[in-house]
Fold Thioredoxin domain-containing protein.
Amino acid sequence: MNFKNYLSKAKYLSLGLLLSGTALAGDKNPPAKFIKEGVWRGVFTVSESQVPFNFELKGKDAEHAVFTLLNGSRRDNFHVQLLGKDSVFIKMNTYDAALVAKINDDGTLSGEYRSLVPNFRGNALPFTAEHGKTYRFVEPGKDVAPTADLTGKWELKLYSKEAVPASIALLKQKGNKLTGVVMTVVGDSREIEGTIQGNEFALSGFTGPSPFIIKGKINDDGTLSGEEGFGIYKNLKFDATKNNDVELPDPYKLTFLKEGYKKLDFTFPDLNGKQVSLSDSKYKGKVVIVEIIGTWCPNCTDQTVFLSPWFNKNKKRGVEAIAIGFEQKDSLEYAKYTLGKLRDKYNIGYDILFGGLADKKLVAQKLPAINKFIAFPTTIIIDRKGDVREIYTGYTGTVTGKYFDDYEKKFNKVLDALIAEPAPESAANTQDAGNTVQGK
């Protein structure tokens, strides 16, 4: 498949019954409908529960429109495409998914959030949306006084047949309004917002990837019980206890090299099919940041938002970076499309390679020097000698406050120290030889 034409084909195929395909009686060319400007309230239907979200539309037509998802202080912008006379297609930027909706006669929207990954069927969430409703969970004037203040750090115990990572919720409450983030060793939920009503609470978030919701009740002893859901993926029950001293496992100690290994070795194709190896002369004597990502992974996107401008600012200091993308389809042609979108949107100036299918066991097989692979993203920092010096599991975004600040400080401290180390003489000779061959 030619993935340059993939999006235009996929969006029309994905409409299904959302497009009426009939003209109004007596009018062969009715005027095209468009989404009303202003703030909207949408509701996903997930199994038998509802997950609300908010968005804003600015612009009176598709050419000028900006669709913005609203989550607390976070804003994510998307383009809108008009399909036919009464339907819209909103691609979730670098995530291979879209909102596809019909504009009804009464101005409301009805449609689906759909995966666009080829041959990846069954992943769709129906939704409806109403214009002018700015609330998320509770209509204005219907609030019930909260029985507690949930502001603080909460230790979550999740219940599942499979092992699940430890979780911490950081919450802020002001009256009935509740905002926060859920952190695990593999990343964070991004900013979520919601409400507390009496002894019940609920928060949700939708930023482009599958929506997230966490809801429950406050028990008589001050603990919490509830359930968190990951849209089209899974739901887990939890108990939570306020604990301002709880911390997640050290992300610098979770992934490491097996005994006897000091270096990492790999060869993967870039987006043009050229084989690239960490042993290539381009990386000799350089500090190298290896980022293991996937375009389907929101924390990977957040890490890219951090790393891309950092690299563009520091690349002349003797540092290189490589992103290895593991995608939802084991196809270089498909990866060229998805990873190319990521590269273009975030102005990535470092090499992007395709590792294969997004599977943690596969990553561990293709990088046999590491003890195990736990999370997308994982950041591996290599010194000028080619030795692995740091491995950071997951990513904590800006919404985590102090945790992000600590990450940024240590990242810069480690990189500054490694960049300041002298390059080995053998690497300098290799680079000189390469320059001579190239006539530089």
About this structure: The CA atoms of residues 177 and 195 lie 5 Å apart.
